[in-house]
């Protein structure tokens, strides 16, 4: 189970490799939100999302002989790139199992980062876990799960260590941290780091309407699925249910979930471009959308929102910037 | 005349106010350029461009009684916002004289940052210097010139101090620094800082085709105008001629100028979005365009390119991302 020493060990392994991403702000965003808003710019992380933190943490934690046989991951895209790049930097092979309908850019990037990509048909009912287990057995590679894996959660937790230090440097010791939440790896990692280093903050997971499995699970006190197919604008965070490892952490440490609409997500993407000069993908913009448009759901005080990823398909992104 | 102690004093005044912007990279950009490429992300500076460095330096250098009477600037947009925000943070008035055809976003932002905006008709032959001089005399405000002003150059030089330190941290002590060049404030400031702190680097100004007054001036050994009207895609850097103060510095310290096409600029903007997750305006992308597409004009070794500004009008930007 992930704990603070694991996160701190992941941070030590990450030094000089994982980027410390900036905490950015704009008076224009503060005016919209009616409170100070800070954006944790994980879009500037290597591979364009926080997922490189977890990928690097998991791959670097393997013993060298195991690591040399390579790693395996299934992912709609950002975890794929994070693991592929971590494997590439370690000089070990990676196979990534991706849905055929993942954004083309994420598939291309994963291949360009040196990984072998195996595509599967999400709509056709193929089970990615079975494909992964088979490849794992055949090739002796280690499966790096996208969120329900203690070393991955520890890696995402390094983002929380940075948030705690950066907020303290700004003199901010209490407020709300909003996280873009799929399976809960980033959310639970950040929550563990802040529990120790910035206990004045409440972590609140944010999800898109219709894919609010974490909000429902937190409300019900038990893991609950959203019941929708994993296809939608916010492709990075449509995971069907919180993880068996991540949910108990979130249940213990996080406030109620927040649900945002696709219109709010698109407007947050446009504002991130105009006001922060950052390209944010839909799934990476849900927390900023909550910060800007859900003040009624938030306690008073400053808000820190993760901008979790920026790997939007260029045509889709251009359409959204143009008002689509 | 700007010198290293002035730049270091500007850096001391900037501490805790001006952002240290990150030096970012992508293996995909390295592959295109065939060499390591680093982007100095000044789009993440307050107000979305490096101009806040010069604005803050100049306003903070005024004696308090003078500063209290307010400041005045003429600018097509980024200097306007830099000075407006610096005045706002000091709690003193600012009047900004802007061309009526400047990008709407830059005019709106300047007003939103608390400045009074006076628009003039660039095509109609109005002389912005005369308007500035009249307002200066009437109101006793201090004119902050956009580039030909020692304290502004000193402020832009703080970007060079950061480049020197960040390159050294990466173990890079020689190579080429490409700057987006209008009047030469950023270029000359960076060149002075690197002369002292990273003498292994050659600074080379980059301009858009048709507006290559600095390249021509460096080649001729004397200040030479580009002769074109100040209207074009790269609105931020269409200044007619290098400055009387900036040119001797560039002439002494900088390598030959490089000229890029509008197509190269647009492709650099798209790649900055996809690979660095940064929104860059046309005038802020010329140096990256040179890094990616003008390898034949560059000495071997790594390249550091300034991404000078990100204040593109959203509709224009969306059109370029969509391939326009």
TrEMBL record, chains A, B:
Q: Molecular function (GO) terms listed?
A: ATP binding; L-serine ammonia-lyase activity; magnesium ion binding; pyridoxal phosphate binding; serine racemase activity; threonine racemase activity
The cofactor(s) it depends on are: Ca(2+); Mn(2+); Mg(2+); pyridoxal 5'-phosphate
Q: Which InterPro entries match?
A: Ser/Thr_deHydtase_PyrdxlP-BS, TrpB-like_PALP, TrpB-like_PALP_sf
Q: Which Gene3D superfamilies match?
A: 3.40.50.1100
Superkingdom of source: Bacteria
Which PANTHER family did the record assign?
SERINE / THREONINE RACEMASE FAMILY MEMBER, SERINE RACEMASE
- UniProt record similarity statement: Belongs to the serine/threonine dehydratase family.
What is the name of this protein? Threonine/serine dehydratase
Upper classification of the organism? Bacteria, Pseudomonadati, Pseudomonadota, Alphaproteobacteria, Rhodobacterales
């Amino acid at each position: 189970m992930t704990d603070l020493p694991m996160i701190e060990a992941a941070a030590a392994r990450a030094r000089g490799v994982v980027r410390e991403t900036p905490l950015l702000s704009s008076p224009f965003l503060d005016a919209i939100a009616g409170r100070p808003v800070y954006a944790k710019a994980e879009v500037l992380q290597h591979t364009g999302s926080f997922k490189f933190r977890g990928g690097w943490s998991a791959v670097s934690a393997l013993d060298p002989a195991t690591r040399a046989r390579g790693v395996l991951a299934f992912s709609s895209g950002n975890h794929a790139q994070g693991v592929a790049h971590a494997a590439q930097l370690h000089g070990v092979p990676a196979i990534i199992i991706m849905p055929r309908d993942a954004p083309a850019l994420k598939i291309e990037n994963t291949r360009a980062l040196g990984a072998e990509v195996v595509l599967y048909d999400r709509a056709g009912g193929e089970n990615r876990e079975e494909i992964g287990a088979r490849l794992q057995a055949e090739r002796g590679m280690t499966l790096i799960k996208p969120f329900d894996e203690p070393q991955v959660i520890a890696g995402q937790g390094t983002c929380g260590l940075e948030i705690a230090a950066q907020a303290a440097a700004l003199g901010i010791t209490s407020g709300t941290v909003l996280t873009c939440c799929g399976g809960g790896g980033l959310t639970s990692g950040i929550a563990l780091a802040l529990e120790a280093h910035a206990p004045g903050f409440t972590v609140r997971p944010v999800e898109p309407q219709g894919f609010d499995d974490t909000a429902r699970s937190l409300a019900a006190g038990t893991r609950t699925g959203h019941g929708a197919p994993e296809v939608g604008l916010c492709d990075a965070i449509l995971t069907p249910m919180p993880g068996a490892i991540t949910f108990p952490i979130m249940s213990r440490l996080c406030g109620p979930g927040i649900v945002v609409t696709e219109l709010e997500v698109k407007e947050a993407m446009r504002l991130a471009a105009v006001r922060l000069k950052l390209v944010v993908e839909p799934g990476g913009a849900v927390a900023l959308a909550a910060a800007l448009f859900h003040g009624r759901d938030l306690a008073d005080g400053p808000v820190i929102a993760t901008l979790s990823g920026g790997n939007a398909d260029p045509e889709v992104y251009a359409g959204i910037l143009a008002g689509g």
